[in-house]
Amino acid sequence: MSGSKKVTRGRGSKIEQLPDEVKGFLDAMLRDREYSQQDILAEVNKQLEALGLEDEKISRSGLNRYSTKLAKIGQKMQERQQMANALTSKLGEVPQGDIGKLLINITQSLAFDILSDAAENDEPASLGMLKDLSLLVRRLESANMDSIKREKEIRKAVAEEAANTAEAVAKQAGLTAEAVATIKADILGIA
């Protein structure tokens, strides 16, 4: 059985099963960083004794595992927050039409990362995962095409409005019908 993962019955760790008030206290002490793990262990076990739960005392190794797990989760959350902040500031610099393209590219990158992670961990991509990713890519491509189509329609509408305005101004200025038609064709040719 070497190399295989330990199978458990789905029971949470001793710390995860602590009473809410004790677990909340433990989490607060871990976040505070003012206390050593030894101090935290002693305080939590004192609280458990006071509640008459001597059998539920936590071990140093259990606390260390839990603390490490929380630190990893906290680090991932902080990294995601930094990425979100960077993306948000980037979106402020990107023209509105490019935001959709940017989000599509990010989502495609995430899908690739999921497949890469599965390959790195020697976990074959499941049929369901491949189906979901295929559907995701198809929807992203469809959204990209819709975005391009919408952008073209908007450009065409703006050009038509500009051409009509130019036509009205040119007529008021006394230009010939031929000159007005040339100006309007030039504007519509831009779109």
State the main characteristics.
191 residues, elongated, mainly alpha, 76% helix
Describe this structure in words.
The chain is mainly alpha-helical. It starts with 19 loop residues before the first helix and ends with a helix. It is built from 6 helices and no strands. It has helices spanning about 20-30, 35-50, 60-95, 95-120, 125-170, 175-190. Helix 1 (about 20-30) runs antiparallel to helix 2 and helix 5 runs antiparallel to helix 6 (about 175-190). The protein has a domain at about 10-95. The chain is elongated, with a radius of gyration of 31 Å.
Write the layout of secondary structure elements.
Elements: H1 20-32, H2 37-50, H3 60-93, H4 96-120, H5 127-172, H6 177-190
What is the N-to-C order of secondary-structure elements (H for helix, E for strand)? HHHHHH
Beta-strand fraction estimate: under 5%
**Class per helix and strand makeup:** mainly alpha
Question: What integer is the average pLDDT?
Answer: 77
Q: How many H/I helical runs?
A: 6
- List how many beta strands DSSP finds: 0
Q: Based on Cα principal axes, name the global outline.
A: elongated
Low-confidence stretches: 1-7
Outline the biggest β-sheet. Answer: none
Could you give the distance between the termini? 67 Å
Percentage of residues in helical conformation: over 70%
Output the radius of gyration: 31 Å
